[in-house]
Every structure is written in structure tokens, then in C-alpha cells.
Design brief:
The chain is an alpha+beta fold and 78 residues long. The protein has one domain. It is 45% helix and 18% strand. A hairpin with a 2-residue loop joins strand 1 and strand 2. It is globular and about 40 Å long.
């Protein structure tokens, strides 16, 4: 499958967030997804879904270590 960040993924991203049990609303320029335990803010549903996935995969300690940052920069910034 090939999938690109485009307008046709906006509604499916919102639906995925809802299916995960999050309530979604807009406040100013941000969309907010909340489930009682977590609160995520982003400019759109695809970004919100990415933040949710980040915490699901990496957990509460989602931040990258210095070694992970260095490896990323060596791979993509050179």
C-alpha cells in the first residue's frame, strides 16, 4: 500500500482517533483529543493521530535520547 499525507486522510484520521476512544474538539487553531488520561493538541487530525501513536509506541517517556537524536541526524541531515 502507498499512502500520502493529503486531504483524503483527514476524515479517516479523525475516525481512527475516535475509534481509539478520544473525544475531539477544536479550540482556536488547534484540534484537541482527550480520553481522560491523555490530552493531545495539534493543527489537524493526522498530526493528532501521530502524537497518539508516538505515546502508544514509545510510552510516557516518548522523548528521544541524545544517541537517538544523533543517529537520526546522521541518517537524515547529512
Amino acid at each position: 500500500m502507498d499512502l500520502a499525507d493529503a486531504g483524503n486522510v483527514t476524515v479517516p484520521a479523525y475516525l481512527a482517533i475516535s475509534r481509539k476512544g478520544y473525544a475531539v474538539h477544536r479550540s482556536g487553531r488547534f484540534m484537541i483529543a482527550e480520553n481522560g488520561e491523555h490530552r493531545f493538541l495539534a493543527e489537524g487530525p493526522l498530526q493528532l493521530l501521530g502524537l497518539i501513536a508516538l505515546v502508544e509506541v514509545r510510552g510516557e517517556s516518548w522523548q528521544a535520547s541524545d544517541d537517538e537524536i544523533d543517529a537520526y541526524l546522521a541518517r537524515f541531515e547529512s
